[in-house]
Specification:
Blueprint lengths: L10 H9 L4 H11 L4 H5 L7 H13 L3 E5 L7 E5 L1 H4 L2 H14 L4 H12 L1 H22 L1
Antiparallel strand pairs: 1-2
Helix pairs in contact: 6-7, 7-8
Length: 144
């Protein structure tokens, strides 16, 4: 793993060094909420990330221990990306971003329903979803 050189000891600055661009959190979102786990899956996201940017962001996220690259169990030509525990720990942050965005932006009904469910019992939602994600990503790792 490549050692990152941080600009400062500020937690926000250090975090932005990993996923402070406009694409990395979308990749993480796709993995956590939409079960995307291949390069092709990420390319199909509605934001239309360029292939060179996607490759760069996946590499950065892997180098920083957010995700892990595995052999795809069904195809030697594909790579399977799986979230690490460090990546799964970003769930509460993404959830808070959802809450904030729901307050200020027009959000799709599907996402609004998820936000409403999460707001009812935020801690329970995070605990339940974290367990589900850990099981799903552990299952992916055991298949490869």
């Amino acid at each position: 793993m490549k050692k990152n050189i941080n600009r400062s000891e500020c937690p926000i600055s250090c975090t932005l060094d990993i996923f402070g661009d406009k694409w990395s959190l979308l990749i993480i979102r796709d993995m956590l909420f939409f079960n995307k786990n291949t390069y092709g899956d990420f390319l199909k996201s509605e934001e239309k990330i360029a292939t060179n940017i996607l490759a760069s962001r996946l590499q950065t996220l892997e180098e920083n221990g957010i995700l892990k690259k595995l052999e795809h169990p069904d195809s030697k030509a594909k790579v399977l990306y799986t979230m690490t525990p460090k990546g799964i720990d970003l769930l509460p942050i993404l959830l808070e971003i959802h809450f904030w965005a729901n307050k200020y932006f027009l959000i799709s009904p599907e996402i609004q329903a998820r936000i409403k469910e999460a707001k009812k019992d935020k801690e329970g939602f995070i605990k339940s979803m974290t367990k589900e994600l850990k099981e799903r990503f552990a299952s992916e790792q055991s298949k490869s």
